[in-house]
Every structure is written in structure tokens, then in C-alpha cells.
Amino acid sequence: ASDGKGDAGGGGKPLVGVDYPRSDTDFWNAYIKYVPPSARELGVELKTTNSQNDIAALISNIQTFISQNVKGVVMAPQDTAAIAPSLQQLADRKIPVVTIDTRPDTGNVFMVVRADNRAYGTKACQFLGTKLGGKGKVIMFQGGLDSINGRDRTESFNECMKQNYPGITVFGEATEWKGDLAASKFQTRLASDPDIKGVYMQSSFALAGTLQVLKQRNLQFPPSDPRHVFVVSNDGIPEELKDIKEGLIDATVSQPADQFATYGLYYVKAAIDGKTFAPGPTDHGSTIVQVRDGLLEDQLAAPLVTADGATVAGQPTVRYDDKALWGNAS
Amino acid sequence: MSDTLVSTGAPAPTDRPTARRRMPALARLRDLVLVPAIVVIAVVGQLVNPVFLQSDNLINILQSMSAIAILVLAETLVLVTGKMDLSLESTFGLAPGVAAWLVVDPAITHGLGVDLLAGAWGVPVTLLVGALVGAFNGLLIVRYGLNGFIVTLGMLIVLRGLLTGISGGSTFFGLPPSMSYLGSASWVGVPVSIWLCLVAFAVAVVVLGFTAGGRALYAIGGNVDAARAAGIRTDRILFLTLVTASVLAALAGLIQAGRLASIPSGQGDGAIFQVFAAAVIGGVSLNGGKGSMVGAFTGVLLLFMIVNVLTLAGVPAQWTNFLNGAVILVALVLSRITGGKAQE
Amino acid sequence: MSDTLVSTGAPAPTDRPTARRRMPALARLRDLVLVPAIVVIAVVGQLVNPVFLQSDNLINILQSMSAIAILVLAETLVLVTGKMDLSLESTFGLAPGVAAWLVVDPAITHGLGVDLLAGAWGVPVTLLVGALVGAFNGLLIVRYGLNGFIVTLGMLIVLRGLLTGISGGSTFFGLPPSMSYLGSASWVGVPVSIWLCLVAFAVAVVVLGFTAGGRALYAIGGNVDAARAAGIRTDRILFLTLVTASVLAALAGLIQAGRLASIPSGQGDGAIFQVFAAAVIGGVSLNGGKGSMVGAFTGVLLLFMIVNVLTLAGVPAQWTNFLNGAVILVALVLSRITGGKAQE
Amino acid sequence: MTDSAARPDDGRTDHGPPVVEAVDITKRYGSTLALDSAGIMIRPGETHALVGRNGAGKSTLVGILTGLQEPDGGRVAFDGHPAPPLADRDAWRRRVACVYQKSTVIPTLSVAENLFLNRHARGRDRLIRWRTVRREAERLLREWSVDADVDQPAGTLTVEERQFVEIARALSFGARFIILDEPTAQLDAGGIGRLFARIRDLQQQGVTFLFISHHLQEIYEICDTVTVFRDARHIRTAAVADVTPAELVAAMTGEEAGAGPSTDRPAPAGDAPELLTVDGLVTAAGAEASFRVRAGEVVGLAGGGGSGKVDVAETIVGLRRPWAGAVRLAGRVLRPGSVRDALDAGIGLVPQDRHRQGLVPMLSVAENITMTVPGKLRRRGFVAPARRDAFAGRSIADLGIKTTGPGQPVSGLSGGNQQKVVMGRALASDPKLLVLITPTAGVDVRSKQNLLAVVDRVSAAGTGVLIVSDELDDLRGCDRVLVMFAGRVVREMSRGWRDADLVAAMEGVQAEHV
Ligand SMILES: Nc1ncnc2c1ncn2[C@@H]1O[C@H](COP(=O)(O)OP(=O)(O)OP(=O)(O)O)[C@@H](O)[C@H]1O
Ligand SMILES: Nc1ncnc2c1ncn2[C@@H]1O[C@H](COP(=O)(O)OP(=O)(O)OP(=O)(O)O)[C@@H](O)[C@H]1O
Ligand SMILES: [Mg+2]
Ligand SMILES: [Mg+2]
């Protein structure tokens, strides 16, 4: 209540602290871009910080939120174990918390807004498995080993492959979310296994390098060509949609950056206003599930985007030019 | 270059004696050379956001810097002797990481850890790992005379890889209370980590300034042959310094682990840049023999105040790093200039 | 030394001449000290996976190392003069990043870039940015005599922040063909980047070995006062070296950008550790005055061969870093030991 | 003192066990044999001189006698008991104190701390009492009439002051046996006087000394016994009174003492053109000078410590930027502060300190010699190694540099030969004017003669020479000597001066402006 700008007192806009997890990936930059307009729309005052993918910085940022008397906090802790003490602190001060993208391992929050990372891996696996007809070799560019989202995608992809497409060999390459490492390892792998027919990259970080390697090795053929190498990316940034259109890649998972921003703030405002939620379908096409005692999670839809929007392995997909995709918003 | 540049002024003979006499006062003031900068940042911070000087926020600054500050203390010890230890940033993560690996129960942590030891072993094992790393560094550097920069650069990579290896890249959590105590408890309303950090620096000030061992570090850093000739057991002291620094890094890692109630496999990654920046801004010489604990402390304090002010000011995320870097660069340059002559 | 011994008449004269005569040969062999290690790795690689020695894979190794190799070349130049430039890793990303920012069309890239210049400006702007960064470093280090480690540590942070600032942290896509040519085209079946890298090293070997300017770098690194007293324009040469190194880093960044057809805002992040490791393994001294381009080249080659073999061997992801680090550490230690006396 | 007449060289001891006895000491550094079954025996109360050419192994023996180095073979005994183990530094320091040849002052620490390094005054809580340390340090410095603030970093001291800190420290241990390795090399006459007075005091108290110096007159001044080393071996030990200087030199060099530099070099023709013109030069440090050097003339620039002679010389050659005034060489005005320009104009330089400014130790002899003349080695724009080696080969032959070949790193040469390399570098450009700053510092008798012979040779060929030195031997061959004192040229002495006059002028006695 001491802060001059935002004040919860008597009908003023509530002050909400939003911590951005990092500003060096396209996906999170899109998220950062969507937050302020959403805040204006919902009528909340913002305090933002950036923890640069450093959990210690996040904790310190939460301290500054507390000292600035925020009424609610939205954050996206990339390390889901380390956040527990801070959650406790916020809970002690009755400050509601919404986490985006990740679910804390321990401790409770008002709502988790995320897409299911395990589903990303499974979707990519089903797409590649179907397109390759259940046999052949695929390479997977894992993100950082230290990322929970990366590990979820890796595990679910591997599990799905083992279960549904035992005929497919998967080369998993650790890349630390670095494009140059991915490109080098792709090249090395192509040298030993030139018959790789599928690529799954866990984020768009490896996009350009992968395409460049394919181009250089004359492996870029239109999807209709039997020599085509199937590429599945992840994130749904505009560049990926463009590449799908041009037939350079085949699919991507569109992480709803815009909805992360909107619903993160929506739930925190709701908490400040004293609303509560229960498991079940929502008004925006997603489902709230209770993932453990006292922890609700709004699992936003993360559609698989393809060139034709056809159904793959029984799952619906979205066409690359669908206006609903955030990557197509101007 | 200094020859030509330094001496362009008026004829020296007249002002030389005064220049001499001014020196000692300056030398003592050198430790406090950052105080004006700290005051400026504090004033700016208060103007930017009145929250800045509230005790809550000040405690926040001190707490968030406490682990790194101890790392800076450790590096300062090594730098004073004229060596370098880059691997401290990895020890910072590895030491508590190994302890966690040995004590946490895979049943709770989804298969992480081996649950070999009881939780109470966490702290001793952490410090032991620190000591072992330091001893290994010492063996290569002191015993076999290998270049410290090179050895610890290699160790930085190996130790980080080791932590990734045992953790599989995951974060250790579910630490025993003994391991999280230092980083999470409070005494009289002030986090233990702050007390620990302040006490560590106070002890270091006394040791470096008023004990034979501490002065030996300066002697070794200033001229190792001369130190040996004066009867200082240079090898033993260098070795002990490296071990002490690694143990301190392990302790710092423990504080960090307690604060996060977990140990990410990337703990400490890249911290060495910050550590060097803090030490050097604080007047510690990379050539050895020069630098004080008070200076090093003001160096870390300044860096963390800058970050805090930038956060409070709500600087656009994409420019935070640049501004942070620019302030560090300016501080580095100013500290060199006020710190006296150009040096290599 | 010769004074004393030549006239002793006692045991020395018989065995000394041979020892002496071996010296120059040894000195030349020193450049090749890593060759055995490279052979060992090659044999291991071939055993692990028969693909290893196929031209495809060899080209792959050379191509993936070409950008870093040029960075190592640049750092070697600086190290030979007895300075250090940590900021090369940031210039590596910033220089092409600024060029991309100026030339790419925000309409294609969703708001990234300012489209101020035509695509053809990409390459000159990249090199110009490199030159400016080098000149700024040179100004602070040579003109104002600030410590190179400190200045470039600050610059490392600032330049990285600057790239994050202008890119907003996003990756630049849609580079003009001129900017991606070097990293993506091939001549006679071999990528241009490999040619470029080999030519750069060949030129560097000639310049360092057979031109007055190149020898001056060694003289400066060996004893800057002596070099100055011998009429070498030390300041000017140091300045030019820093500028050249930064321009080379910019060029390396361009190659990398072309290879990935994009510039992530983290391009080069952490590369300096690798660069130092390669240079030092290759026998370049951190104290200046010692080191050869051939040695530096074998250093990078060894590092990239190790990574390649580890990839081909399908080492579990979590242990890759550790193994990589361990091999580097062993190579560092061995190269020091075979490279002769212990040194600081 | 009383037993100075005894002859220790036959190994007979007649007054208790020797203070120290080293027998059969062998020490190798890589392929260098620094000591070859050498030994020494020093008796209680004597002042024992150790002489020998550069690299004879004197300092190596000092290292072994003070426990810094382990001999590869042989044994050391103090007062008849075997020496303590190397690790027990305290035991060594109780037996022997030493002023090492290499500075052991730590520049970053205060003067006070340097004086009491590793033996600070401590309170009952084991913490250092700085106030006491400072007071003791002030007392100590006063004894040596060194007027320096004990709180300043030792790095800010002048060379002389630093040397006194070393000496004061070594002598303040109260040790009964003190080694002084070339303590006078950095001192001027006044300083040497103070040191010797003090040594005589201690001699009265029965303190034993081992004294090393290249200045033979000092040996005769304060020593009782002298040991000569040559080529890593013990050659001779005798009472000082029993050997003539010529015999000493012969023992050191292994040959009959040759004649000193010839002094019968013809004076330059009176109409020789003016070569160097120094007009109203004021150095940045405030020293002033105006003088001329004609072609073929050898001019000395003399002065005591801090007289500004080096300052003036370094300003002339462009190593320092002048405050005012101009320097012309054969009519061409030299660009202030540019060594390159001075070299291009035709100056050849031997800088003051060969280790600091003279040589790049890791580079080869050939590279060091040719460093100033890259232009002469070029073939199609590139340095041709063959041409470089040929060029260097000529210098090596001309100057008689002992080396395995032009490719040997210069760090592997002995001091005297290193100095010849510096001389070779100065001569490489066929200079019109040779500026030699303290060219024979730390160089043994024989090498000194060789270097000065070069001066005679080049001046005969028409080269002007400026020798900047306070060594009378260096200056003896000069046509004129300019004497500086307190930053001014106070006297000009033409050939035939008497030593006493020159020394007096350098000390500022009868100072009168010319
Ligand atoms: N640390 C060392 N490493 C290698 N060689 C050494 C070392 N110290 C001394 N030497 C060599 O040992 C020999 C003897 O050196 P020492 O310093 O004892 O000579 P010195 O008689 O003291 O000469 P000076 O009169 O020049 O002081 C020389 O050839 C020298 O080059
Ligand atoms: N006229 C002067 N008055 C006071 N100080 C001076 C004067 N001239 C020179 N100095 C200073 O004295 C120091 C020694 O000067 P310089 O090296 O020229 O003397 P030097 O005669 O060569 O003595 P040394 O024989 O010790 O080398 C320098 O720091 C110089 O700046
Ligand atoms: Mg000696
Ligand atoms: Mg002088």
C-alpha cells in the first residue's frame, strides 16, 4: 500500500508481480510481449522482473515483489524443485501465486497454467511414427538436461516410441538448447547414419541449423518425395509456421504463449478477487485438473500444427495458417 | 607506455616527496574506494523506488549475495597468493550436489540419489568434497607446478560434468534439514546466511591482516621466491589456501542449496565471471599480493545493489544484462583509475 | 652458461653438443606435441565407429570446428602478445547480430530488425562492428593501460547484453544470402568455412613466422620493454592486434551464422572456455611470447575430435560433459608436461 | 680478524669448527652444471670473499648455503653439525642470514612489513602488533640513514633504498654468519661507505661474512680471505693479503690478465662533424643537459645514483618523452619520445637493464640481434630466416658471443654473453651514434674488456659513442666525460682525469656549473 503507482486499496487496480523466466528464447519473448496488453485488458497493475533462467535471481525477485507489496505473483519457475521456500514465504503473506509452464514439485499455488509437456513428446512421436510407417531412424535434439520440460519431452517421446513404434531407432542428442551443438551432432549422426528420416527438436532453437544441415547435404525434398526427412519442431513461433508452409518442416507444437500470458494474469486476478475454481472444463476450451491434493492445473491446449491440418494418429491437428495460432497474430 | 604517459606532467623533483608521503593514507583508503559508488547507487535506488532502503529489501540484497560473497572471499584468498581458481564455480555446485546424491532417498525424488548415508552426513560430506577438490587442484598446481589457470579451467569443466553425470541433469530436492538449515533459517530476524557471510568476512579480515599466515599470503603473492627466502613455507600455504578456498566454495554452495531447498545441476554455472568482477572491482589484483577483504566485500555488495536497483526500476528485461554489464564495466574502469596507476 | 661449461674440459663437452643440437628440432616438434594424442583419438574413434575416418565425418569435424578455430586463432594472436581478450566470445555473436539487426526486414521476422541497410551491407557491417569493438578494447587496454583481463571481462558482459538488447533475446532469421554464404556454401565439395579456416591459419603461420610484424608480437609478449627499446611500436602493434582479433571473431561469428542460417542471441555464450582450452592445449602460453598457430590448430582439432568420438560412441548424454572435460583436463596436463618445464 | 693470516686453503683448521663448510657440492640445472664438486670453508670471525666470473656458480652456492636449494651431491655443515633439512626454514635462518643477489623485497608490501617479514611482532593473542612493527622498522631505517616512510609499499623505494632494506633486514637478525651476494652492485659510493662501516662494526663483534662482489677493490678493502670459483669449480682459496689483483683475475679467467682497454686510441680529428646535438634538454623528471658528440668521439656521461644521467640518455634515445628541448642527430631533429625515430636516424642503443629492456629471453639469439633491423632481413616482404641467421652469425663472430648457434634462446646464455647480444643488437643497424647505458653492469672483468674493445673499434670507424655509467673503468677510454649531479651537468673532464677528481665530481664535491 506504500507504492505510489499501483494500489489495491478501494477499487484501484491490484498490483501484480510477474517474473519472466528468461528473455533469450523466441517463445518466452513472445510471452513477455503478451503480458502487458493482457494486464491492461484485465485491469491489473504490473511489476515485472526477469530471472534470466537463474533460480537464485527468481528468489531474489520474489523478495522485491514482497517488499513492493504486490497482491499476487505470476511466475514461471524453470526449476520446479527450488521454488518451494519462496512459495512458502508467499503463502505466509497470503499472496496468491500462479505458475506458468511448470508445476512446483512441492508447495501449493493457486493455479498452474501450462500445457502438458509430456503431450508434446507424445504428439511428436505419433506424428513421426505415422509418417515413417513405424520403421527407420529418427534423431531427437534434447534441450538442456537440466530442464524439466526438456526431460518430460524426452521421456514421453522415448516411451511412446518404444511402446508404439518399436521399429524406429531413436538417437537422443543432448544439446544444451544450443543450435550450433545441435547442428554439429546432426552432422555427425548423418555421417554415421545417413538414412535418418525423422527429426524431433524439442524447441525451435535448433530450427535454422537443422534446415541448413539438411540443405547442405542435399536432403531437402518436398514432403511428397519419398526421400523427404520429416522434421517436427516445438514452440509455434512464426518462423516455424512459415517453414511448414514452405514444406521445410512438417509439424510443430504450438505452445500457447498468448494464453499463458492471459490466463496467468486472469487467475491471479481471480484469486485476488477471492474467486475459486474447481476441476472440470473451462470456458476457454481447456480442462482444469486436480494434479494432487489442493493443486489445480489448467491444461491449455497445445495443438500440433501441420501443413494440412489433417488428423494424425487419431489426434486432430491445426493448419499452419489458422488465425487462432499465436504465431499468426500480427 | 606508462613510461611516456605517466611522466608528461610538470618536472617531478618538486612534487616527488609529497607524492611519497601521500601514499600510505591512500593505501588505506583504497579499501574503501567503492564506498562513494555504493552511496551513489543507494541514492539512485531510493529515488527509483522508495522500497530500496527498507530493511526488508536490504536484507534481501544481503541474503541474495551471501553465497556469492563467500565465493568471492574464497577467490580473493587465492588471488592474493597470485594464483587463480576458476573451478570454484563448479565446486559450488558439485560439493553439495554429491552430498545430496549420497543422502537423498530415490523413493522421494523419482529415482535421484542413492541414499547411502544418513541426512546428518550432508554437511560434512559437502565440506569433504570441497576439501578433496581443493587438494586435487593443489596437487596439480603446487606439487606438479602446473599453471593454475589451466588446471582449474579443466577442473571447471570436469566438475560440472560430474554433477550433471550423477544428477542426470536433474535438480536434487528433498534435502535433509541439516543441509538446508544454513540457507533457510534465521537468527533474530536475519537469515543465518547473512550472519555467516558477515562472520566469514570478519574472520578473513583478521586473518589476512593480523596473523602470520595471512600476511604470508600477501608475501607469496608479491614475490614467491622472496617469501620462501624469508622462511615462509610457500608450498604448504599455497596448498592450504587452495583447499580452504574450495571448502569455502562448498560452504557457499550449501548456503545456496539451503536457500533453494534444492541443488540444480547448473548451480554456479557462469558465476565465476561475477566472482572475478566483484573481486577486481573491489581492488583485488589479479597479479597477486594486493587486495583486501573489505574491498572484495564492497565489490560484491555493489554488484548486487546494481542488480537490485535495475530490478526495482523495472528495466525492460532485454536491456537488463546490458545495463548490468555497462555498470560493471564502468565500475571496473573507475576502480582501476581511482585505484591508482595503470597496471597489467 | 656456455661460458662456464665450454672451458671445464670435464664431462660436459662430450654429451653437450648433441643435447644442444637436439634443441631446435625439439622446438619445432613442440608445435606437433599433440599429434600423438590426435592419432590416439583417431584410432579410438575408428574402433568405436568405422564411420569416423570417412571423409564425410572428417569434413563434418572440420566444418563444425571452423568458426571456433578462427576464434582460437584470434585469441592466440592476443595471447602471444601477452594480453587476453575474453570478450571475443561476445563479439562472435554481437558483430553478425548487429549486422543482421540492421539488414533484416521486420516484416519477415515479426518485428525483429530495423531494415536500415541493404542485405549486401551485412558482411562489411559485421567486420566493422568487430573492428569497433577491438578498437574500444584497444583504447582502454593500450591507451589507458587498463588490465586486459578486467576490461574484456566487462566487455564480455556488456556486448552480450547489447545483443540481447537489440534482438530482444530472439533469434535473427532470414539473413541475406551474403551473410550466410561463408557458412553454408561449398567449393569443390568442401564447405567454404573449412577453406577459410585453413587459409586463415596458413596466413597466420606465415605472418607470425616470417614477417616483422608477426615476430614483433612475440617480442612484445616476451618482453614489452625490450621490444620498445628495440624500436618496435609496441602500442600500435598491440592496438592493431586487438582490432584484428575482434575482426576475426566477427568473421568467425559470420561463419557460424551462415552455418545455422540464424543468429541466436546466445551465440558464442561460454565459448571462451573452449577457446582458451584449445589454445593452451595447443601450447600457447598465457604469459605471452610463446605459442604457434600450428599448435593452436591441433588444439582445436583435438577438442572437436573428442566431441565427435563421444557423439559417435553414443555416450549417455548425462556423462558427455564429464568425459569431455576429463579428456580436456588430461590433455591439458599432458601437454604441459610434455611441453616442458612446469610454469606459472 | 686476528686469524686472517692463517692459510685456510690447505684445509687445516686451527680455531674450532668452521662456521660453515661445504664439501663436494654438485648442482645441475638441466644440462647446466652450476657447481661441480665445489666447496668452501668459512671460519669464525673472518670475512670471506667469493669471486668469479658471471655464471661461475657463486649465487648457486649461496642458495645452497642458505637452504633454498638442495645440492645434487655433497654436504653442508654448520659449526661441525650437518645442515638442517630443507623444510626446516627456521633452523636455517638461525644459522645464516643473507642478502640475495635477486631482490627479495616484496614490492606490494610496506617497507615495515618487508623488514619484519615472517617475524612480525605479535601479541599474546598471536595477532600482529602493527604499531610495534612500524616502530621497529623506523628505528632500523634510521640506523641506515634511509629516509623513507615505513608505511609505503616497498615498490616505491628507489633501487638504493631497496637494497638497504635488504641489507638492514639481513643484518637485523642478529645472525653470527651473514652472506652478502653483490650487495654493492646497486649502491653508490656513499651507500657503499655506509655498508662497509657497518660491516666493520659487526666484524669487531666477531660476526662472520661471506662477501661476493665483482669489484675487486672492495675485496681488498674489507675481506680477509678470498675464494675463487671458475667454471663451476673451486679454483683457489687464499688470504687476501697474499694475492695480487692480477693473480685474482688470472684465477677467475683461467688466463693471464690481459691489458685493460687500450687508452691509446687516437682522439677524433678536430674537424670531425658534429653528430649528436642536445640542446636545452629538460627531461620529464627535471634533469637538464646540453652537449654535443662528434663523429668518432667517445663521450662519457657520468654521475652517481639519481643524478639523472640515465634519465637524460633515455630521453635522448626516445625511451622517455622530454619536457623541453631538442635532440638532433646529424642535423635531423629526433621525434620526442619515439625510439623508432631515434633508431631510424641512426642511434644504436644498449639500454640500462638488459633483463628489463635488452632482451626477449624466449626468442633466439638471432632474433634478438636483428630485432631493430627487420628491413635488412626482408626478401619479397617476408623475413628470410636464412638471411637472419647469416646476419646474426656475423655479429656472433664479431663479438665472440658464446652460443650454440643463432637459434639458441637467449635465455640460455650467460650474463656476459647476453650483454654481448644486446651490444650486437645496438650495432646491427650500423649506427652513427652508439648510446651505451651502464653497459658493463653485472658483467665480469673479462667480458667487460671485450665490450669496451668494441667501443674502441666502432669509434675508430667514425661512430660516435655516448657511454652512460658511473663505473670508472667504462669511462676511462672516453675522450671527454660529462659529470652530472642532481640533474645538472656540473663538470666536463677531458681525457687524463684522475679517478679521485671524477669521483669527487660525481659526489657533488666542488660542484660548479660548466
Ligand atoms: N634457476 C636456474 N635455472 C637454470 N640455470 C640456472 C639457474 N640458476 C643458475 N643457473 C645457471 O647456473 C650457472 C651458475 O649461476 P650463478 O647464478 O650461480 O652464477 P654467479 O656466479 O652467481 O654469476 P653472477 O656473477 O652473474 O651472479 C649459470 O650458468 C646459470 O645460468
Ligand atoms: N635532478 C633530480 N632531482 C631529483 N630526482 C631526480 C633528478 N633526476 C632524476 N631524478 C630521479 O631519480 C631517479 C633515478 O634517476 P636516474 O635513473 O636517471 O639516475 P641514475 O643517475 O641513472 O641513477 P642510477 O645510477 O641509480 O641508475 C629517477 O626516479 C629520476 O626521476
Ligand atoms: Mg650471482
Ligand atoms: Mg638509473
TrEMBL record, chains B, C:
InterPro entries: ABC_transp_permease. It holds the Pfam family BPD_transp_2. It comes from the Bacteria. One of its GO terms (cellular component) is plasma membrane. The keyword Disulfide bond does not apply. The chain crosses the membrane at residues 32-52, 58-80, 92-112, 118-142, 149-173, 193-217, 237-258, 270-287, 294-315, 321-339. It is a multi-pass membrane protein. Its main location: membrane. GO terms for molecular function: transmembrane transporter activity. It is found in: Cell membrane. This is Monosaccharide ABC transporter membrane protein, CUT2 family (TC 3.A.1.2.-). It comes from Micromonospora humi.
From TrEMBL, chain D:
The keyword ATP-binding applies. Pfam families: ABC_tran (PF00005). It comes from the Bacteria. The keyword DNA damage does not apply. InterPro entries: AAA+_ATPase, ABC_carbohydrate_import_ATPase, ABC_transporter-like_ATP-bd, ABC_transporter-like_CS, P-loop_NTPase. Residues 20-256, 270-511 form the ABC transporter domain. Keywords: ATP-binding, Nucleotide-binding, Repeat, Transport. Signal peptide: none annotated. One of its GO terms (molecular function) is ATP binding. PANTHER family: CARBOHYDRATE TRANSPORT ATP-BINDING PROTEIN MG119-RELATED, GALACTOFURANOSE TRANSPORTER ATP-BINDING PROTEIN YTFR. This is Monosaccharide ABC transporter ATP-binding protein, CUT2 family.
